[in-house]
Amino acid sequence: MKRSVKAIALAATLALASCTGLKTDVFSEEMSQSATSGTDSLYVSISLEYPTGSEVRDSLIRTAILSAAFDLEEDPTTLEETVSRYEAALSDQFILEGGPLSWEDRINGYFSGRRKGVVSYMIEYYSFRGGAHGISTMTPVVFDKKTGNIIPEAEFFAPGYEEPIGKALSELLPSTLSAEEYDSVFEKELLPNGSYEVGSEGVTWYYQPYEIGAYSLGVVSLTLPWSSLKAYLSN
């Protein structure tokens, strides 16, 4: 089994930092591993933007990013150690279960939007374990920029928001899909699912593959403008 790691130096992302008001860097690394026999291989690509400040806020955001990106049950240590453990565990699993199939994991995380003291972070994940296709997901996390705490959807909106926002999302859905795509939706009466992103134009909800429709739909994103959400915001 041959394994190689290509680490790309941490690079300042000043444009994104100015957008969110946070000073950030990007950690990037690629890892490839091939079997001693056959053509199967493992490829991992990781790119994560993260705040570099020493404040408690920055530490909380870094911890939340790592926990979400790598689906951790315990608080992570350093970014580098967390990535190393992830790659080692995936390598061990590949050796045991990979067989004649190639595996691929791609994790891309970045700050994606902001509004009035709130910043959003997006984690894009792609996983392939052989077969007909891989799986792609988009997972947003919304932070209080002042404290670094995660803001759950139920805290961002006022009580009773679910039904009217769900109705608005359901009405928006047909206009974002083709007629054929809409026919493949098996959950046409939507509710906000907690997977929300705050941006300058409004709030976007993300529905993962198989959550409301066929795999062919991919990730379905629906954005409601701020003008239609004013009555349902908590503040």
Name its key features.
235 residues; alpha+beta; Heat Shock Protein 90; six-stranded mixed sheet; three-stranded antiparallel sheet; 6 helices; 28% helix; flat
Could you explain how this protein is built, in words?
The protein is an alpha+beta fold and 235 residues long. It has two domains: 2-151, Heat Shock Protein 90; 154-232, Heat-shock cognate protein, ATPase (Actin, Chain A, domain 4). Helices cover 28% and strands 35% of the residues. The chain has six helices and nine strands, in the order βαββααβββαααβββ. It has helices at 14-20, 56-70, 79-97, 153-156, 162-176, 179-183, and strands at 2-12, 24-34, 41-51, 103-115, 118-128, 135-144, 196-198, 202-207, 220-225. The protein has a six-stranded mixed beta sheet, with helices on both faces. Strands 7-8-9 form a three-stranded antiparallel beta sheet. A hairpin with a 6-residue loop joins strand 2 and strand 3 (41-51). The longest helix is centred in the middle third of the chain and has 19 residues, at 79-97. Residues 8-18 have low confidence and may be disordered.
Mean pLDDT: 89
Estimate what percentage of residues fall within beta strands: 25-35%
Q: Name the CATH superfamily classification of the largest domain.
A: Fervidobacterium nodosum Rt17-B1 like
Q: How much helix, percentage-wise, in residues?
A: 25-40%
- Going by CATH, the architecture of the largest domain would be 2-Layer Sandwich
Which class best fits the helix and strand makeup?
alpha+beta
Strand order of the largest sheet: 1-2-3-4-5-6
CATH class of the largest domain: Alpha Beta
Tally of helical segments: 6
How many angstroms separate the termini? Answer: 56 Å
Largest sheet: 6 strands, mixed
| Low-confidence segments | 8-18
Number of strands: 9
What would you report as the Rg, rounded to the nearest angstrom? 20 Å
Number of domains: 2
User: What is the CATH T-level topology of the largest domain?
Assistant: Heat Shock Protein 90
Overall outline = flat
- SSE pattern, N- to C-terminal: EHEEHHEEEHHHEEE
